[in-house]
Write a structure and sequence with these properties.
This protein has about 300 residues and is of the alpha/beta class. The chain is built from ten helices and eight strands. Strands 2-1-3-4 form a four-stranded parallel β-sheet, with helices on both faces. It binds zinc ion. Zinc ion binds next to loops.
Length: about 300
């Protein structure tokens, strides 16, 4: 009797374990999966991936929303993400130096696409670090990101070639109208007030493309410490042109800019999205929305009648 009971328990145990294992393995087995797993370094790239990959991709970002990618320290779950990816997208130009180690350790044989490929980067004339990685703020470069992302998706999932191409065309059309809208808006700021002062130098591509002078406290990486001379220089500039506002950034500490604002008549004009998009229900919840939010914030605060 006891033997039968034990035998039954063992049989049930084996059965349950087998069912459990089947249940666990099926979703992870590549042949049965209908979505490709795509991991991006930053939320901006991840958002463009979602726009082009839509329901054919399971997309995530290593840096969370609001995280500064220059100084990011990776956590153990990042290795797991990289290990489970079919495709990895990075920005390049030194934005996320930490990712190379991560890929080497957990994803050495995975395809890695650098979305800035084909762009000639701006050089940092202040010597804070080179080259400037913030290419997405020139929408003509964001279009190159989108094209490289579509190419990457087609490379690992060629069956859905037409799907990705169609989504790319739609997204490029949205970027084109965003680009001309931004040019119009920025031109509404009186020329002597067309100066964007921010925490770190993320907006040099933006300045060049949309014709606004950009001055920042820190260099192109937030790793560089601001100098007292930089603070004094910005204070002088603000006073000289009677600049109405300076801007802080979502992923950078605002302390020094707040101090500059106190020393001058310039108000804190708002918080700009720089190296991350915003939370799901915020005004900057996608790359396009974050860009629009920035332009609206800058124009409304600098366009004084
Ligand atoms: Zn940055």
């Amino acid at each position: 009797m006891n033997r039968i009971v034990i035998k039954n328990i063992v049989t049930i145990f084996i059965l349950v374990t087998t069912i459990f294992q089947i249940g666990c393995e099926t979703p992870n087995s590549k042949t049965n999966r209908d979505k490709i797993v795509v991991v991006s370094s930053i939320t901006i790239i991840n958002d463009i991936v979602r726009n082009i990959g839509k329901d054919k991709v399971e997309a995530s970002s290593i840096c969370a929303i609001g995280t500064d990618p220059h100084t990011y320290k990776s956590v153990p779950s990042d290795s797991r993400k990289i290990a489970s990816a079919d495709l990895i997208f990075i920005n390049g130009f030194g934005l996320e130096g930490w990712i190379n180690k991560l890929i080497k350790a957990s994803g050495e044989n995975k395809p890695v696409v650098t979305v800035s490929e084909g762009i000639i980067p701006l050089k940092d004339d202040k010597g804070h670090g080179d080259p400037d990685p913030h290419c997405w703020f020139d929408i003509s470069y964001a279009k190159i990101y989108a094209e490289n992302i579509a190419k990457g998706l087609i490379m690992v999932d060629s069956l859905n070639n037409e799907f990705y191409k169609k989504n790319l065309t739609d997204y490029i059309a949205k970027l084109d109208s965003l680009d001309s809208w931004a040019k119009d808006e920025i031109s509404k700021i009186p020329s002597d007030k067309r100066i964007l002062i921010t925490s770190h130098d993320a907006f040099r591509y933006f300045g060049k493309a949309y014709k606004i002078r950009v001055e920042a406290l820190q260099g192109i990486s937030t790793e560089a410490k601001p100098q007292t001379a930089d603070v004094a220089r910005l204070v002088d500039l603000i006073k000289k042109v009677d600049l109405p506002a300076v801007f802080i950034e979502t992923s950078v500490n605002p302390k020094l800019l707040e101090q500059i604002s106190l020393e001058t008549n310039a108000k804190i004009g708002g918080t700009l999205y720089s190296d991350s998009i915003g939370e799901e229900f915020s005004a900057g919840n996608s790359f396009i929305n974050a860009f629009k939010f920035n332009v609206n914030t800058i124009v409304s605060k600098l366009k004084v009648d």
